[in-house]
Design goal:
This protein has helices spanning 54-61, 74-80, and strands spanning 10-17, 24-32, 38-42, 47-51, 64-67. With 81 residues, the chain is of the alpha+beta class. Strands 4-3-2-1-5 form a 5-stranded antiparallel β-sheet, covered by helices on one side.
Length: 81
């Protein structure tokens, strides 16, 4: 792996909107793993779902998926600059 950076997990939040308001409330968060699967945890830090992809976590939580990281996770992005 000389000269290459390992793929790092991408973080996401799962949010819902307050009734009658545009304010998002984070109800869970998670990570998309290098193989594309994802794990999500509720606000109390309990594992809720292990999914084949992040979009499935969105469905399980009945929430909107919001990516925290861009195309690269923070570690890989730092090394590429």
């Amino acid at each position: 792996m000389t000269g290459q950076y390992p793929t790092v997990p991408r973080r996401f939040a799962l949010v819902r909107y307050l009734d009658g308001n545009d304010t998002q409330v984070v109800i869970a968060w998670g990570m998309e793993l290098p193989d594309g699967s994802a794990v999500s945890l509720n606000a109390e830090g309990q594992a809720i779902a292990v999914c084949s992809r992040a979009g499935h976590c969105e469905l399980i939580h009945n929430a909107e998926l919001v990516w925290i990281d861009g195309d690269l996770g923070d570690s890989a992005a730092d090394k590429s600059s």
